[in-house]
Amino acid sequence: xxxxxxxILLTAPTAxxxxxxxxxRLSGPLVGEFLQRCFSKNPLRNRCVHGELRDGEFVIxxxxxxxxxxxxxxxxxxxxxxxxxxxxxxxxxxxxFDLVPGGTLPLPNAAVSDAGSAFEREVLAYLxxxxxxxxxxxxxxxxxxxxxxxxxGMDARSVLADQTLWRLLNPxxxxxxxxxxxxxxxxxxxxxxxxxxxxxxxxxxxxDWVGEFADIGGLAVVLVxxxxxxxxxxxxxxxAIAASQEQIExxxxxxxxxxxxxxxxxxxxxxxALVVVNKTDQPSSxxxxxxxxIEISARTGAGLEKLxxxxxxxxxxxxxxxxxxxxxxxRQKALIAESxxxxxxxxxxxx
Length: 351
Ligand SMILES: Nc1nc2c(ncn2[C@@H]2O[C@H](COP(=O)(O)OP(=O)(O)OP(=O)(O)O)[C@@H](O)[C@H]2O)c(=O)[nH]1
Ligand SMILES: [Mg+2]
What we know:
Largest sheet: 6 strands, mixed
Bound molecules: guanosine-5'-triphosphate, magnesium ion
Strand content: 15-25%
Structural class: alpha/beta
Strand order of the largest sheet: 3-6-7-2-1-8
Order of helices and strands: EEHEEEEEHEHHHHHEHEEHEEEHH
């Protein structure tokens, strides 16, 4: 059987929609020939080379290309706009590469079998699940981080307790709930970074829940904006409120939004929820100081950085930009737990 030539998009679109970096891995005997014909520079083994990716006379992008030690694969780091990625994949397809669909995630073993160790295969297989730049960086840094930590001696218990990278690759669901008109959709749009939800000074504006990826300070989350919780007379609104309950119950974190300018009509008690008092750019009409709430203005953006940090804290995400060893698969987690139980030294790179 002839050796397979494959092109796989290793990175996922970011939470904001596009993607800053998109890595396409080309594997197989055609790699050298393809780079010679379509890349403007001579690629180097284990080195980054910056050049132009060309389709005939036409320049698609100026990517960085790294060729594997044995020349059997190359990673092409593109600027991640959808058009650039599609054009690069289409070119690879015309040049004889089979396009591996990114549907099954993490990538199946066959798609990453050219990576040396089980650990390296896990880096590659999970890369398409990294939707934000910190997630991509932290995952790609893991071989180095583990190498450094093994030499320096590490606290396996704190590595086991740290679920940051796992969280970065498995977006938690966050529901925004509260009474009508408190500013839930305005807050959702701020966190989405674009106008996804309709907002208006009219209770009952959001009729159905709206869920989309959002990038919360480097953490990709599925953010769900829900209709205001009230006893609605309208049958459609009642059905929408009931449907949003499922989203709320299935979420990892609830943001319970209150309005500084209007005292809540119902009890604000929601165990485990993060209480957010909105519209603090206006004079408040009731005393919410005893609530231990985060005060924000979704209109001006005040307090949103603090809210992002609190969301990280509640979801166990710590220093997503720091370099340190982390686990991100159940296999790794079990191996770390075993090494603690058996008092064995821990080196995931070798397991
Ligand atoms: N002053 C001020 N007004 C705000 C703020 N956030 C939202 N609003 C206004 O409050 C009104 C209601 O905002 P929405 O975001 O639609 O409120 P909602 O909670 O989604 O409302 P429903 O979907 O009806 O439940 C709009 O007129 C917003 O412009 C804020 O931080 N400050
Ligand atoms: Mg709304």
